[in-house]
Amino acid sequence: MSRLITVLVATLIIGATAAPVSAERFHPLRTARSAVNLGLDTAHRAVDLGLDAAKDVADVVKDAVTFDNCRPGAHYKGADGRWHECH
User: Fold this and answer.
1) Domain of 47?
2) Contact at 8 Å (CB) between 12 and 28?
3) Residue 60 falls within a domain, yes or no?
4) Is 39 domain-assigned?
5) Which of 87, 55, 51 is CA-nearest to residue 72?
6) CA–CA dist 67, 75 (Å, integer)
């Protein structure tokens, strides 16, 4: 949370110094709101990416050959770290 506040303050400072003094449409609160929206959007996308990755991992684990779902002739790696053939 403190990193988010630091980023927001830095954004405000950069936005305030980069905007020309004569710009009538510049408003610091609007800049802060845009920075917060950008941060929330980035966090939302990161969560979505993490959920997609977790779903892909679950699919791979589900399709892995184990002792329980072994077909004759297939190989699986046992708890001892060695490869075993299914019978």
Assistant:
1) 2-17+28-78
2) yes
3) yes
4) yes
5) 87
6) 9
Paired tokens of 45? 């996308």
What residue has token string 């929206």? Answer: 37
In a domain, 86, yes or no: no
Q: What is the pLDDT along the chain (87 residues), one digit of tens a residue?
A: 567 777 767 776 776 666 555 456 778 888 888 889 998 999 999 999 988 888 888 777 776 777 677 778 888 777 788 887 887
Model confidence, pTM? 0.42
Report yes or no: 85 and 75 within 8 Å, Cβ to Cβ: yes
Q: Tell me the C-alpha to C-alpha distance, in Å, between residue 40 and each of 2, 9, 15, 36, 45.
A: 15, 15, 19, 6, 9
Tally of domains within the chain: 1
